Amino acid sequence: MTPGARVAATIELLDEIVSHADRPADLVANAYFRARRYIGGGDRRSVSDRVWGILRRWGQLRWWLKRTNHPADQTNALPRGIVAADLMVVEGRALADVEAMFDGGRYRPDPLDDAERRALRQMEGHSLSHPEQPDWVRLNVQEWVAPHLQEAYGEAWGREIAALENPPPVDLRVNRLKATVAEAQAALAREGIETEPMRYAPDGLRLKRRLSVVAGEAFQNGLVEVQDEGSQLVAGLVDAQPGMQIADYCAGAGGKTLAIAAGMNNKGRVVAMDVLESRLDRSAQRLRRAGAHNVERRALDGDNRKWLKRQAGAFDRVLVDAPCTGTGTWRRNPDGRWTLRPEDLAELVPKQAAILDAAARLVKPGGGLVYATCSVLPAENERQIEAFLERHPEFAAVPVTDVWRDAMGAEPPAEIGGPYLRLSPLRHGTDGFFAATLVRKPKAEAEGPDRSLDQHDKVRADGSARDGDAS
Ligand SMILES: C[S@@+](CC[C@H](N)C(=O)[O-])C[C@H]1O[C@@H](n2cnc3c(N)ncnc32)[C@H](O)[C@@H]1O
């Protein structure tokens, strides 16, 4: 492809992403390239890198269009203007270079008109950042989200959000059902994939260089799964042990289910639940590849309502990996910065609370409940847990450092302090995950010291399955 043709493909793909804002950008991009198999690997990488970079700095590029009165600012042809602005203020091209790419030639974008040329001329010699950009523009977030991020990080919010601009590394979790970390590392090395152990996750390997692993034998034989270190740590806090009964209440396509099952040596039971059966179905092949045979899948639909009721108090551990704003994954999904709407947050918070209430019923007395999100917003995290504990005095928070000690078999590093797990790309090099570790108080404790247990209650305190809920 000529440079101009790559620019045209960049604009075309961004147009697709913008017009399918309800779909994740990576899925739109996959479909785009699948329909254009004639685009070779090098061109594909170049176009993707530019598109992802532009999505990360969209707010600042948009600011430049507004400042220079670029006509794209007022029209639907936003990607065309954004890409031209990127060539000027990020790549530092001269206007004449940009005009040569936008010349209307074969496979190249239409020529610049006078208004576009006037705007781009004002960008010549400037860089992306400008002292007049407000913080939220400089940090490439929407204005309405900024106060939530400030609440999350306080003074440090600028540095924390800036760290979300770096593309994430490729993280793998070694499947202990099939290999030790050293065996998996050696198998990957034989495929030319160099890895290093992770800072925190005991079964994690991080690629030294970005490469695709999914076609290789180590992946195909189930020795490793692709999983961010933060996600591995959340699954680790479930502290799954062989023989336990574990519910993964929002299991999706099974990322954490797989990690939980790997800790159980195929002994005991994991029930993967989700409202979307199609997502659960996607986990089936991954579970087979991993050699995990103790996982049952249950769609949370009408058919399973009675079954779910009977499961009250039946689980040693329940994980709620709740649907959330995904603000902690912006380095991976930069389009999320621009597609998130205030009404999404307003809908998610009560939904998360309802999911937590429903999932909490499944926990047996003395059992653990882990609530996690890949969000960094306090409304979905700390405040959600505080409200839950108000509604459910039969639960108590356990400091994450205590659970870490038991689950990871190691002292928690100093930077993991605090009652909850709050991971960030800046401080931990992971996605921005939150996790709270709660315990359902043993029956006698939950009901207060004054009430003596009758025989019936004693049976329940032993953790046998019950209908209904104590709360
Ligand atoms: C963050 S994703 C789960 C990711 C998954 N645990 C993993 O590690 O790959 C949240 C999931 O919650 C599911 N969900 C949404 N509403 C739900 C509900 N009311 N009950 C259970 N699951 C729900 C979504 O379908 C989605 O798959």
From TrEMBL:
Q: Name one GO molecular function term.
A: RNA methyltransferase activity
Query: What positions does UniProt annotate as the active site of this protein?
Result: C374 (nucleophile)
**Listed InterPro entries:** MeTrfase_RsmB-F_NOP2_cat, MeTrfase_RsmB-F_NOP2_dom, RCMT, RsmB-like_ferredoxin, RsmB/NOL1/NOP2-like_CS, SAM-dependent_MTases_sf
Residues recorded as binding S-adenosyl-L-methionine, renumbered to this chain, are: D274, D301, D321
> Which Pfam family name is an example for this entry?
RsmF-B_ferredox
Domain of life per record: Bacteria
Q: Which BP terms in the Gene Ontology apply to this protein?
A: RNA methylation
Q: Which UniProt keywords apply?
A: Methyltransferase, RNA-binding, S-adenosyl-L-methionine, Transferase
Region of interest: Disordered: 442-471
Q: Which residues does the UniProt record annotate as the domain SAM-dependent MTase RsmB/NOP-type?
A: 160-441
Question: Per its UniProt record, what Gene3D superfamilies does this chain match?
Answer: Sun protein, domain 3 (3.30.70.1170), Vaccinia Virus protein VP39 (3.40.50.150)
Q: Which family does it belong to?
A: Belongs to the class I-like SAM-binding methyltransferase superfamily. RsmB/NOP family.
- Annotated protein name in UniProt: rRNA cytosine-C5-methylase
Q: What species does this protein belong to?
A: Reyranella soli
